[in-house]
Amino acid sequence: MSPQPSDPNQTPMGSRRHRRHRLRGLDTPFGVILDVSESGACVFHKGSAQVNTGDELVLQVRHAGLELDLPARVVRTQKLGLKRLEVGIEFMSLSENQLAGVRALAAAEGVDFSPSVWIAA
Q1: Nearest by Cα to 38 from 112, 89, 111, 114
Q2: Span 69-88, mean pLDDT?
Q3: How many CA atoms lie within 13 A of 55 on its CB side?
Q4: Which is it for the CA torsion 39, 44, 48, 53, positive or negative?
Q5: Which residue has the higher pLDDT, 74 or 65?
Q6: How far is CA 33 from CA 1, 77, 106, 118, in A?
Q7: Closest Cα partner for 36 from 114, 94, 88, 71?
Q8: Cα angle at 109 between 96 and 34, to 5 degrees?
Q9: CA-CA distance, 14 to 84, in Å (whole number)?
Q10: C-alpha dihedral over 100, 111, 58, 84, to 10 degrees?
Q11: Cβ contacts of residue 32 below 8 Å, gap of 6+?
C-alpha cells in the first residue's frame, strides 16, 4: 500500500513518471481536466463522441491568458455512466513552451477554475 499524500490535492505517484496535480473545474472542449502531470492528464468527458484507447487528440486549454494545444494519446477509458467517461491521456512530444504551460497548470493545483455565477437579489 502506498502512503497517502499529506496534501489532499496531490495524488499518489504509484508507477507514474510525474506527480499528478488535481485541478477543479478546468473546462476544455474535450472535457473537464481532473488532474494533470508533465506526462498526461485525466479528463472527465461527456458526449456521444466515441473515445477509444489509442485515439490521438489535441487537448485545447484556454484559461486566463494561457492558450495550449497539447497533442495527446488516449491510454485508458473508464465508463462512468451513459455518455460519460473518465479518460486518461498521455501527452506526446510537447515543446518547451507547451511543457511550461502544463507546469503552470500544475502550479495552479487546488485553484477552482469553474465559472463563477453571481445572482443579483
Answers
A1: 89
A2: 94
A3: 15
A4: positive
A5: 74
A6: 26, 14, 11, 24
A7: 88
A8: 90
A9: 26
A10: 160
A11: 25, 26, 43, 44
Dig out the grid coordinates for 52 from the structure: 477509444
**What distance separates the 2 farthest-apart alpha carbons in the chain?**
51
Please answer whether residues 37 and 73 qualify as being in contact, where contact means their C-beta atoms are separated by less than 8 angstroms. no
What are the counts of helices (DSSP H) followed by strands (DSSP E) for the chain?
Answer: 1, 6
The predicted-structure confidence for 6-22, as pLDDT tens digits, reads as follows 444 444 444 546 577 88
Q: What single string gives the DSSP state of each residue in 47-90?
A: SSS---TT-EEEEEEEETTEEEEEEEEEEEEEEEETTEEEEEEE
Residue 70, Cβ density class (10 Å: 0-12 exposed, 13-18 middle, ≥19 buried): buried
Which positions ≥6 away from 14 have C-beta within 8 Å? 2
d(CA 96, CA 44): 26
User: Cell triple for residue 101?
Assistant: 504551460
**Nearest-angstrom CA–CA distance, 27 and 41:** 13
